[in-house]
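Researcher: Last one for today. Full complex below.
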Amino acid sequence: MREGAGHSAPDSKLLGFWHVMKSMMSRPSGLIGVILVLLHVTIAVISPEIVPYDYKKISNILMLSAPDSSHWLGTDQLGRDVLTRVLMGGRQAIFVTAIATPVAVMWGGFLGIYLGLVGGRKDDVMMRIVDALLSLPWILKMLLLIVTFGTGQTVLIPTLAFFYGIPVIRIARVATHDVVSRDFIQAARARGHSLISIIFVELLPNVRDALLVEGAMRWSWMLLAFSSLSFLGFGATPPNPDWGLMIADARGFLVVAPLAGLAPVFALSTLIIGINLTADALAKTLGVDRARKASPA
Amino acid sequence: MLKLLVRRILLGFATVALVSVIIFAGIEILPGDACTAYLQRDAQGQRLENCRQELGLNRPVVVRYLGWAGSAIRGDLGLSANSTKTISELVGDRSRNSLLLAFCTLLIGLPSAIFLGVLTGLNRDKPIDLICSTVAICAMTIPEFVSATVLILIFSVWLAWFPGIVMTSASAPALAFFPEIILPSVVLAMVMTAHISRTVRSSIIEVLESDFVRMAILKGVPYRLMVFRHVLPNALLPAINVIALTIAWLMGGVVVVETVFNFPGLGRLMINAITDRDLQLVQAIALIVAVIYVGVNLAADIVTLLLNPRLRTSMMRRS
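Model: Here's the assembly. Have a good evening.
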């Protein structure tokens, strides 16, 4: 029932991007996932053009007002339009994670493949360091850097990319171990190919599927991390609209204005669920089994 | 066998030692030290120098690391910059509260996780499995503060069944945390259930496809007997490691839930220490959390090793 990443790679290489997409969307959960993700990304891109109000316009008359025909989702504790802020609330989160995820997968992936290929002492030492880093809670590592260097995007993106690349090292290394003893690697070595060319030409195509699925999962975990940081007050900064921040603000007023909290809850949840359904469908399509490796980040 | 155990335990100690070096180095690299945190605005010139002299911050890094690690082993974690209590006292209460929260979460989450995992594993690809698996994906990926907010809104604001915030002080007796501890436990249990049930499901499926189960079916062993005698004992073993990871996460990574519910556990102490730049306290908490993580994983490995004769022999052959 389990296909190793190495076995499925040669077939899926023949399948193009559209083929994979089609196969993913043939599953109902995959279809819903892809639609949710595309919808959210589209809204994030075009929202500044379509929102009805200015996201930071404060009004002391409209504070916490109930939904009506001019403010469909009501207003928040500062009288700002909730619909406007929810539509724009994913922009920073999606932007930051969309840059940090590929970076994390790339550096973690390369290091993992390299370590899986060379093995020996280097591999032992690095994996001990990886284990040690993973034994510290993510929020501790990230907060230390953020508190010291500030909450700007120039700090958040590299921080997320660095810490979320560490678990990728493990995944890439294990995927490499599945292939490294096979004949074509031995042959490439015997032909005297350089390490770089073995990594790029022989190994990368074979661990690519595992990395793609891992990247999709990392994206959802990063979004979770970013919005948690915003919720705690270390991510997006006011008055920028951000779902995590909005939920934190709305918590004190849930009795009066539940929609100010529920709207960002709905938006954030649909995006994260969408990414996960997509990742799950991608894993099934590419034949990568990841249920067994699932663990809290 | 004994050799294997000793090796595994030594590896655990090595990891803890390495973590302590990483923590110390990390705090060292970041700007600021105990004296700048303690003196705050006055941290300049002679006063800063005197303070550093007094706390011994002028000694070489290696000497300071050894001093810190040495007293940590003896249970002395040093002084907090912003509190008159010693760090050991501060951390003691908080660890107990985190342990209490973890215990309540396991009490709710573990039985439901195993039940759901077995149910979905035995009914693979049937409607019940598809529904439960999709719900599990949602539960494990929605941020905790989101599910917490929704649960507070429903059970605390609208229905008024449980309190939505913990008002009990950190050093209160354990029973004083009821019923306030229920909602945070449920939020954490949801995430935990999703993770563990997925693992149980896939390992049940794997066992169902193994030769000995096929053999049992061919022999005509009744379904119920086969599930309880042959499938479950084999399928639950891999879950032990995931359960261990979850416990470690419950002890150190639940900052968000503790903040939402104002629960006085290790996580909130950690976040306060970070924002107050109380680096001594940050160091101490990081070390404790790492020790718990390594310890729980070690325990899980040993239990798996003792319960699974196959693993035992195959690992012995390898080592």
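The radius of gyration of chain A is 22 Å. The CA atoms of residues 53 and 94 of chain A lie 21 Å apart.
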